[in-house]
Amino acid sequence: MLRRFGRVGGRVLPLGVALLVALPALTGWHYAKQGWRDHHTGYPPVPNGYNGIVNVFGQPCAANAHAVWMTVTLADTGVSKKVWFHKKLGGMATEMLSGKGGSSTNLDNDVFGHIQNNHVYQYVKTDVGSYNCRFISGTTKYSTHAWGIAIDVSWNYEPDGQCSSTSNYHFSSIFQNHGWTWGLAWCDPMHFQYATGY
Fold first, then answer.
1. Are 72 and 128 in contact (CB under 8 A)?
2. What is the dihedral of CA 41, 102, 45, 172, to 10 degrees?
3. Assessment of whether the complete model's pTM goes beyond 0.85
4. Which of 34, 81, 88, 89 is paired with 66 by a 20 to 30 Å CA distance?
């Protein structure tokens, strides 16, 4: 016999169903109660084009391009990955704890905090990567990954050349609301970059 709990549209729900409906709201509340806040601190301007990127983030493949890291646990495999990216896009919380000040709360606190708080972390899947000193495939033009201002998420599910999204659309608006451009516009749905016009 199922125990009954709660009403939706005049219908009484079984306890298990009621808990499944309520769980996202409860866990979101709990995550914020753990101390996470969307701070919007220290964001650099979003650059446009190569010269804009160099003016804001410096030369590609420089030390600042891979000066900050965060750990991302892949929802489909449980594997934890260390993801390196540009100093101007994160590291504030870590640096403040060490007494060194900080640079930004953008990627590691605000973007990934929203992904967790909005209960879409289960779509962060194999694989994730950011800094990579390389050219755009088939060119001699540096990739935004060479500045540590791009991140590829769920690339086994969101391959380059696919003009739709099966996973990343769940959190694409979070990135876009924090200054990131989504590569779906050029059929690269795994890709998010903190730059336009490049």
1. yes
2. -60
3. no
4. 34
